[in-house]
Amino acid sequence: MSLVSRFEDWVRQAERNLKSAVANYNAELYEETCYEAHQVAGKVVKGLLNLLNRERRGHSASFLALESGLELPDDVLNCLKYLDRHYIPTKYPDVYDEGAPCDYYTREDADKCLECAREVMGWVMENAQRIRGPTGSLP
Predict the structure, then answer these.
(1) pLDDT tens digit string along 62-77?
(2) Is 87 exposed, middle or buried (0-12, 13-18, 19+ CB in 10 A)?
(3) pLDDT band for position 56 (50/70/90)?
(4) CA 132 to CA 65: how far, in whole Å?
(5) pLDDT at residue 129 greater than cutoff 70
(6) Does 24 score more than 80 pLDDT?
(7) Structural domains of the chain in order of their starting residue, each with its CATH number
(8) Rounded Cα gap, residues 69 and 47, in angstroms
(9) What number of other Cβ atoms are within 10 A of residue 108's Cβ?
(10) Which pTM does this prediction carry?
(11) Mean pLDDT for the stretch of residues 126-136
(12) Cα dihedral angle (107, 112, 117, 118), rounded to 10 degrees?
């Protein structure tokens, strides 16, 4: 049984998360930028899995991507792992002995997270195009 493709929905929502990440970056809300960047990666990868008729729950973008069975370049995998490290600590003050996430995140963290979110999105879109073929529809 094949799943109804919701790939476009996952991508559209990920694109909104990317816009939110950029807006947070511009407002110097760097922990929020990193959180939203992780959301971008998780959603586009879940969309890719959906396109492949695979469903997987969870929040580890790197493990989700590995489930695809597609070739995963080292730079993309490293980005996924980097973004995974920002899923919990960006949200909860009790992750830290003192302070809140906003006390720990820097512009450099946000730069790297945005870069990685875009890298992952590019990888997903390249693979989706390859899977869909030249007509843009599923085989």
Answers:
(1) 999 999 999 999 999 9
(2) middle
(3) confident
(4) 18
(5) yes
(6) yes
(7) 7-129 (1.20.120.330)
(8) 14
(9) 9
(10) 0.92
(11) 85
(12) 100
Give the DSSP letter string of 34-59. Answer: HHHHHHHHHHHHHHHHHHTT-----S
* DSSP states along 53-92: T-----S-HHHHHHHT-S---HHHHHHHHHHHTTTTTTT-
CA 105 to chain centre: 18
- The answer to whether residues 76 and 123 touch, using CB atoms and an 8 Å cutoff, is yes
Burial tier of 90 (Cβ tally within 10 Å: 0-12, 13-18, 19+): buried
Cα gap 92→12, rounded to integer Å: 27
Place of tokens 């799943």: 3
Residue type, 137: S
**What Å distances lie between residue 122 and 45, 106, 118, CA to CA?**
11, 25, 6
The mean predicted confidence, pLDDT, of the chain is 94
The pLDDT of residue 133 is 81
Six-digit token pair at 71? Answer: 């070739």
Pairwise CA distance, residues 49 & 29, whole Å: 31
Mean pLDDT of 82-102: 97
